[in-house]
Amino acid sequence: MDCQALCARLDEELRTAAYADVDASANGLQVGAGTGSVDRAAFAVDAAAETIARARDADADLLVVHHGLSWGGFDRVTGRTYDRIAALVEADIDLYVSHLPLDGHPELGNAAGVADRLGLVDRRAFGTIGEEHVGRQGRLDEPTDVEGLRERLAGLDTGGRSIRTLSFGPDQIGRVAVLTGSGGDWLEEAVAAGADAFVTGEGKQKLYHQAREAGIHVLLAGHYATETFGVRALADLVAGWGPETTVIDCPTGL
Asked: Do residues 182 and 205 share a domain?
């Protein structure tokens, strides 16, 4: 499949342009000319030395990631940034990035994947950023307690790390808000939405007191673990377009 055509289809599906003014990440084709063909595409959460090397070993023509290399542009291409870009160029691998667009996509996104795992129904957008959203919220198919909610998240690729829980909400959980990665700044929006529990990846110190005072459960399931869903969904999508796809899993435990 032509690389430019593949990237254009991803941009359209993910609504990449809609997030241009609210995302520091340079989404879309980030490294490469995009002029070749893509017979094999690799998918990973992070554009790191390990994932690039494994994409090279898989003979990938394109690496699609959630966390790319350019955040607000490059002042200098040196150090680890140079090493990563050089490795991509030397292996003739183009790099496609989708950060916030992949967080917020209602079907393919990271939050949507977590919502699937939790069994949320009657879903709607959550996690306002500008005029867009980067999370999902909904009602549990069957109310449960906080331990039951934790059990629904069992099997996430946490690298052996346990799911941290701030148990300050009601005995029975009906509504849940989800924003993957580092989503603690949206706790107040979860409270305003009437959520009994908020699921995110990681949180700051202040989150403890905010959750306690608001009377809401918070589950910290890991930044990496909550953000594997999107790239896996994209791998399935692109496989349906023709290229061979592979998912590179590099859990951080964070």
From this structure: yes
